[in-house]
Amino acid sequence: MYHYGEMAFMILGLKPCVLIQFPHPAMADLYHRVVLKPVFEPHDQEYSTLYIAHDLASDEMSLKDSFIVYRREYQSKMDRLFRPPTTRISEASLGEILDYPGRLPSNDSEIATMREVAYLEGTRLLTTFAAQANQKAQVAAHFERYRDVCDAKIGMKLTWLFRDPVPMDSPQPH
């Protein structure tokens, strides 16, 4: 995940939280100690982090050993969604709290209509998520809100892509 774009969007008040996952718990712990704590502890009235130590999963992934960095005004929602005894979270709830306006396919026939969405600054990828082809208008409205806030608050000029996913086995640009 491209954390710098996600973090910027959260700090600008566009999204409630950021999910941070690493392939190994030791990497997550190091990132928490070296990056998250020094950055967010001085601002603990505005932001907090939540470590998911228990078994918690969506249909697509395990969230165990992940961190959620969040804006304090969403504390009760974070507690309800991510703390024990909760062990399952729907993809819809996860997408909503991460402020992704699209959704993953819910059945095999929707795989063909899935689109990759990317928000960029120049050629720098800031975030990416999935949406269905029929969600283009709501993704466009979401993008316009992000674009306008980023431009007004920090002068960042965003663009976006809404395209068929690039197959994993196709050559990737370097």
Overall description:
The protein has 174 residues and is of the alpha+beta class. The protein folds into two domains: 3-97, no CATH class; 108-163, no CATH class. The chain has helices at residues 3-11, 25-40, 75-82, 91-97, 136-154; strands spanning 17-20, 47-52, 66-71, 114-121, 124-132, 159-163. The strands form two sheets. It has a three-stranded antiparallel sheet with strand order 1-3-2, with helices on both faces. A three-stranded antiparallel sheet has the order 5-4-6. Strand 4 and strand 5 (124-132) form a beta hairpin. It is globular. It starts with a helix and ends in an 11-residue tail after the last strand. The model has no long low-confidence stretch (mean pLDDT 92).
Helix and strand arrangement:
Blueprint: H1 3-11, E1 17-20, H2 25-40, E2 47-52, E3 66-71, H3 75-82, H4 91-97, E4 114-121, E5 124-132, H5 136-154, E6 159-163
Antiparallel strand pairs: 1-3, 2-3, 4-5, 4-6
Provide a brief overview of the structure.
This protein is an alpha+beta fold. It contains five helices and six strands.
Structure keywords:
174 residues, alpha+beta, 2 domains, 3-stranded antiparallel sheet, 5 helices, 34% helix
